[in-house]
Amino acid sequence: MEPITRLGKELDAEVSLHLYRKMVTIRQFEEVSGAAYRRGEFWGPTHSSAGEEAVDVGVCAALESGDKIVGYHRSHGLFIAKGSEIKPLMAELFGKITGMSKGKGGSMHLCDRAIGGMCSSGVLASSLPVAVGVALALKKERKNQVCVAGVGDGSFEEGQVGESMNLASLWKVPLVFLLYNNKYFQVLSARSRSSATILSDRAIGYNIPRAVVDGQDVAEVYRAAKVAVARARRGEGPSLIEAMTYRYQAQAARAGLGGDEDFRPREEREYWFNRDPIKLFRVTMLAAKMANPEELDAIEQEVKVAVQEAVDYARKSPYPDVDEILTDTYSRPLHSVWNLHTEVPRT
Ligand SMILES: Cc1ncc(C[n+]2csc(CCOP(=O)(O)OP(=O)(O)O)c2C)c(N)n1
Ligand SMILES: [Mg+2]
Fold first, then answer.
1. Which pTM was predicted?
2. Is the CB of 72 under 6 A from ligand 1?
3. 70 pLDDT exceeds 50?
């Protein structure tokens, strides 16, 4: 396996080992949570970030702790990369009270304000207008902080994307659009949906600069993110990074409900599995003598223990009390919303 982009001074041995640990954490988190899901330990569609770790980790490596992220429906990896603890993330998937959204959000509605994780959403592209609002607030409050917003290649076809890019550019908000081009919209391939292969060309029409990067190469993603984040921090407005990547699992895990089949061609899968971002990074670090195999193996073992602890924690945690079903789910108590807008009788 050929090493990927040469690591420069910007990614020294210490930083590289840290990024490697993050990527391994995402992969193992997805493998263990996916297995628990398939055993029926929790419910609700669950989208895995496996295969796309270099995108999440490369981008977050360019962010400061005060910067924000807004996820989409496949954002476990983005939250882990930004700094979320895996115990409350796992507990959220399990619907437990100790989860980061108190067990009411599940896999697609994450929130971790402590690390700048504003939200994520299961409604395709709906988080982009929210991200424009977050970035506008950062600008108005002169925070010198940046927001990164994730979106999938299929979701990129939604109308809200153009509207969000237009306003972000017009208002010059500090936002980085992060397009995960994994070439599939559920079972529909990119080729069957669009004659354009570089989707980010559309950003040019909104006067937004864009970069197309190898999403399996963490160093390349990091380099592009640094440029985009610096531009946002200088007050020059949004950028778009299109990361060419591949999801390693089927569209979503839906225990017993279908949707778990993988329709993608075997040769294509083989090509992308040979470009596993973690294996590529390992080869690169070893070639650059930034680490020895024993160190990297030790990281994998440590992560294994931590992920096992997270799943045990999620299993042992209680479910939220049924009396709390409406707590935190509306900005105002539901009965006051009803009183204002409808005739719905109160019981
Ligand atoms: C508005 C809306 N329409 C349809 C769906 C169902 N849905 C969930 S994921 C998905 C595919 C999204 O593909 P893409 O944006 O490429 O992201 P990927 O899953 O490949 O990461 C669809 C159609 C949804 N969640 N929201
Ligand atoms: Mg896709």
1. 0.93
2. no
3. yes
